[in-house]
Amino acid sequence: MATTGQSFYDETMKTNYHTHCNFCDGIADPETVVKTAIEKGFDVLGFSSHSPLEGEEWPLKADEVELYVQTIRDLALKYRDDILILAGMEKDFIVSEPVWPVRRWESVQLDYVIGSVHMVWSEKLGRLGTVDGPVDEMVELIEKGYGGNARRLVEDYYDTLALMVERETFDFVGHLDVIKKRNKVIGFLDESQPWYLEKVKTVLDVISRKGVPLEINTGGIFRGATDDLYPSQPILKECFKRGIPVVIGSDSHDPNHLDSGFDLAREKAKEAGYREHMVLDRSGWRSIKI
User: Fold this and answer.
1) In this predicted model, what pLDDT tens digit does every residue of 123-148 receive, in sequence order?
2) How far apart are the C-alpha atoms of 66 and 128, rounded to whole Å?
3) 49-58 CB contacts, 8 Å cutoff, 24+ apart
4) Cα separation of 235 and 256, whole Å?
5) Would you give the end-to-end CA distance of the chain in angstroms?
6) Whole-model pTM over 0.90
7) Nearest residue to 188 (alpha-carbon basis) of 221, 154, 164
8) Contact of 38 with 79, CB cutoff 8 Å
9) In this structure, are residues 270 and 283 in contact, taking their beta carbons and an 8 Å threshold?
């Protein structure tokens, strides 16, 4: 647990920057999340509510952005002797929307931004479809939105992700291969097929060239959706080959899951060749030992 005067350079520091609360699709209010993080011995807790999306119920509401950030700032002040609390946002990349302002949303200033893709545009449906939503929505997207051509959907997802990295400014890429989230149930993707890893590599090359860190996300496993992390181990090894820095996060929607899977994430990171991961503290982003 962080205390007054403790160095935030400590290699044992415990952090999470991918945290959802009831301002979006998390189940708990922010203060409950903070109290749980303190109980779990966190040094840094970053909130990352989903950015507003017109017509969607699960993200942060546009008229609540300022309230969300102020709530986090108030909690940061209240618990400043126990934990460092940061106000971030998980921004959803939509091809048709304007470029994101750097670390800003309307009139608020954010500490960091996660860049994520949850939706792709389907010409057949004439609308966006979610790639990590309920199973029935994913089935509809594949069957009606892509005429049963799951490979085309997967390729469109990664093309969208690459465009996000090229076009936007943010702090790290969230859950790179979240496209596989419903694969365990539907079985639409064989990740061992050579074309798949080759496609992912094209995105990793862009990420490497742009110098953007990538998240090792434990959320799929502890919520029972996947059998491995985001990204999968073959992809993580390719990340290491390209020198892409990593950030470990839980993508928690329940405060009890704030640190779920962290031991596995560290184990898989080391197995892939990593010896350091990125953390954000009062002095900015830096690497510490895993």
Assistant:
1) 999 999 999 999 999 999 999 999 99
2) 27
3) 49/20, 49/21, 49/23, 49/24, 49/89, 49/90, 50/20, 50/24, 50/25, 50/89, 50/90, 50/92, 51/89, 51/90, 51/91, 51/92, 51/105, 52/105, 53/92, 53/94, 58/24, 58/25
4) 28
5) 18
6) yes
7) 154
8) yes
9) no
- The dihedral built from the CA positions of residue 277, 279, 283 and 288, taken in this order, carries a sign that is negative
- For 15-289, give the CATH class: alpha beta
Domain ranges of the chain: 15-289
**Lookup: tokens for 31:** 């203060």
Model confidence over 196-210: pLDDT tens digits? 999 999 999 999 999
Q: For residue 76, which amino acid is it? A: A
